[in-house]
Predict the structure of FAD-binding protein.
Amino acid sequence: MANPIAISKKVITDVLIIGAGGAGLRAAAAIKEKSPFTSIAAITKVSSAQKSHTCTAQGGVAAVDPKDPHDKIIYHEFDTWKGSDCSCDQNVVRRVCSLAWDEIIWLEHHGLHFSRSPEGRIMKRPFGGHTLNFGEIKAFRSCYEADRTGKGIQDTVYFMALKNDVQFYTEAVFTELILDGECCYGAILYDMNEGEFVECRAKATIIATGGKARMYQVTSNCRQNTGDALSIFLRQGLPLMDIEAVQFHPTGIVGPGILASEALRGEGAVLRNNQDERFMERYAPTIKDLAPRDLVSRSIMTEIQEGRGFLHPAHQLPHVMLDMRHLPDVVHDKKLVEVSSFFKTFLGVDPKVELCPVTPTAHYQMGGIPTNIDGQVQIDENTIIAGLYAVGECATASLHGHNRLGTNSLLELITLGRTTGEHVADYISQVTINGSSYSGDFTRSTFDKLLAVSNGSESQFKLRRELTELMNRCVGVFRDEKILLEAIEKLKELKERANHVEIKTKNLVLNQELLVTWELHNLIDVSLGIAASALDRKESRGAHFRLDFPERSDDYHYHTLCWMDQDMNCRLGKRKIDMSIYETEQGALKEKFGIIERKY
């Protein structure tokens, strides 16, 4: 047996940011703007912050210029509310949409090179679900830097972090929150480079670890997106919110799952079935291929299930086709050169002359760690954990409800990243660092157990494959009671089998075998929470679609809270959906933010 795990080092900082993507580093910039002498440590699971998943975002960031003669902020608020299937929090929607243009200007002033029109204005493109005049016509609302907008944002906030002397710890993994009652005083980290576990004390801790969709067979998520923080929250007795809401992006490239950005359809690309029909006209007659992602994904799967799809000969995956042949060369060669080239790189298909195979790919989590509007983590609707914040895709304020509109993810990073950072700056000015001793029992017991297995009978690679196939089949685009019950039973079996995976390498330095086995446990934990929450929500809302309950029900007009006990049993609760725009507006405008029908 390996030597018992020990916490061998202690680090003290004013602010600990776990996750060094767009959300975490935008928060760091806001903290430094308000409190320049604050010490900040940023932890990233990868070898550099510039490898964060934010860099993969392609199409743009939604923002309405208050001087725009056609678009209005209220239209963006309406589209976000309608797109969420009436389940986002309206106070968060109002704050984010109102701050959007300020953040575009902030990014530009700090180095991001937005694409420009010949007149020198920031270029904008349409995206799914974004409209003018409350749904009448598509809106040009997405500001972009070619097809590398996420990379531009990440570079901007990363270089701001370097300028502000943020201390980076790379290839470091978050393993435990340091909690004392309803207060957080930092976290335990596994420093893979040094092969040691570190106690990091801080006045405030910000969780910004991003997505989790690696439990699915086809996903756009990077390898590191394994839901680590979400699993830790569940196992430390804290709730998650709305985790049944998993967004499948409709146009993942068959095989790798990499996105063929919605920007392609914004530029005029269309979806076709095996009868060469533009089938989205059947499902969303007004905005067709630019309908919200959940609707387009279900439409594609319906076409496939009714025999109008294709089967890819190499990957044996069902799919439809994205037609870009009619787009001008400037789209292929300049505007979206990287996305267009993905088809050549991964499938050997030339999008200028050939149809491109696409299929829904697990892409985004609308649910996650519950927070209030200031990013403070909540135990329930009225109770926060002092000193603990969450922002970005791992957090749920909730801007997206049960379905996110394209480009609102990058918008959330920069707006709520800023406001969370500002709140942290105020909070840390009023508190001191708690330096009392901490045992780290949760981390030590977790990793001691993993390393103690000898003569293990299971392979983590085989279990991971079984997990992804199970989640795709039972907790994917379409769900029902029978397959969700099957998923829960099988997930508990997988969890037990995962306890019999032997880690042959006992040295802790860069131990990838240990890391991937730990990640497997995290994925199973979060998958069980997804399945249990999906089983309890007996309706269809946004990305959560039940074949046995295909209509939205007012009985489920709330956020789902999910706790998990040590025996992997889930307890579910509720949090109220904020309706403050509806409650404060008058007349016809008030009706737009009520429980509205969702047609496109």
Q: What stands out?
A: The mean pLDDT is 94.
